[in-house]
From TrEMBL:
GO terms for cellular component: mitochondrion. It comes from the Eukaryota. It holds the Pfam family MMR_HSR1. This is DAR GTPase 3, chloroplastic. SUPFAM superfamilies: P-loop containing nucleoside triphosphate hydrolases. It comes from Iris pallida.
Length: 359
């Protein structure tokens, strides 16, 4: 816990007392905390869904759990100030990228494995058309094996080539390099037929901010050719780099749609640090994260209690953030909210995806 001062450990209450179902008379919560996602599971039912024992095939109860959670997320985010982030460098990149895409033999679309749907650009299909592409789910170390299996099954079923990668340590990058080259091999077959000399294959690396694009390139090259850092908006310009004699890679700044229509997805971007922090209210985002964590069977109220020694009763994230602020941060809700966010990002609640594929 570092400098995080906690009160003396409390004697844990029996779970029947701590896991209260939401009360109609719960204290006012400015981030709505009621469940709208259909028939919500009660805690005893949730404890029966142990995701770690679920095979890659998505069970009906698991699927309905995630569908309900998505509906709740949409409800919780509705009253909040919309999260939008479209700084000048993204607008410029979008224009340049559309032109550069015409030069690419293959496009590598990188998404955050914790939120593969929220980091999917709504216009990407339109821009790429029939261009050969590879989907990379990066940050594979930040999700569970079950999350990974579920997403692998989902994309493979759709005939989408998916590579799970770790841009920090390099896992998956060699496979990615090989795949990109093999997909674009036809380019040089055509050139030879025309009597032209072969040329390096051109692969564009595109995706949302902070998903690990530059790190993947550095890992592939085994050199720090592109600046990478743990915040969104680090790469500001398009940059071509060579990988040996036969592959050229384009690193690009992370792009987001001008207007994010799905605000639940926007909050997930904020939780995962994939959007500029000026675009959102950290206290609101922290409160929603608490509400999400309290519902996830692998965390739940118990997981929150274990970390902060604060009961999560009433399912109001805002109140939880306030309690944590009073206990540790002199009442500063931004700091307590940031603590929960950074604990989640560091895997202190376990490595978990915030999305599961629809059936
Ligand atoms: N744990 C983990 N961290 C990663 C992984 N890939 C990248 N990172 C870290 O995530 C941070 C962001 O990586 P970048 O490569 O700068 O991300 P980017 O997509 O280029 O970001 P922008 O240039 O801002 O769009 C860095 O601190 C990386 O070390 C991964 O697979 N797992
Ligand atoms: Mg970058």
């Amino acid at each position: 816990m570092g400098a995080f001062l906690l009160p003396p450990p409390l004697v844990p209450l029996p779970s029947s007392i701590r896991f209260k179902t939401p009360s109609l008379h719960a204290p006012p919560c400015s981030v709505p905390n009621t469940f709208v996602g259909g028939a919500s599971l009660d805690w005893s039912q949730k404890e029966q869904i142990n995701f770690s024992t679920i095979p890659s095939e998505i069970s009906a109860s698991e699927e309905s759990f995630w569908r309900d959670l998505d509906a709740d997320m949409a409800y919780w985010t509705r009253p909040l100030r919309p999260v939008q982030w479209y700084p000048g460098h993204i607008a410029k990149t979008e224009k340049e990228l559309k032109n550069q895409l015409k030069l690419m033999d293959v496009v590598v679309e990188v998404r955050d494995a914790r939120i593969p749907l929220a980091t999917s650009h709504p216009q990407m299909d339109l821009w790429l058309g029939n261009r050969r592409r590879v989907l990379v789910l990066n940050r594979e170390d930040m999700i569970s094996t079950d999350d990974r299996n579920a997403w692998a099954t989902y994309f493979t079923r759709q005939g989408i080539r998916v590579v799970f990668a770790n841009g920090k340590l390099g896992m998956g990058t060699m496979k990615l390099g090989r795949l990109a080259k093999s997909l674009a091999a036809g380019v040089n077959v055509k050139r030879r037929a025309k009597g032209l000399l072969p040329r390096p294959v051109r692969a564009g690396i595109v995706g949302y901010p902070n998903v690990g694009k530059s790190s993947l390139i550095n890992r592939l090259l085994k050199r720090r050719m592109c600046t990478a850092a743990p915040r969104p908006g680090v790469t500001r310009e398009l940059k071509w780099v060579h990988f040996g004699k036969d592959l050229e890679l384009l690193d690009s700044p992370g792009i987001l749609p001008m207007r994010i229509s799905d605000q639940a997805a926007a909050i997930k971007l904020a939780i995962c640090d994939d959007i500029g922090e000026r675009s959102y209210d950290v206290a609101d985002v922290g409160a929603i994260l608490v509400q999400m964590l309290s519902r996830l069977p692998t965390v739940g109220s118990e997981g929150l209690y274990k970390r902060y020694k604060i009961d999560e009763d009433g399912h109001c994230g805002k109140i939880y953030i306030q309690k944590l602020a009073l206990q540790v941060f002199n009442g500063d809700v931004s700091q307590s909210s940031f603590r929960v966010l950074s604990d989640f990002r560091k895997g202190k609640f376990g490595w978990i995806a915030l999305e599961r594929p629809p059936r």
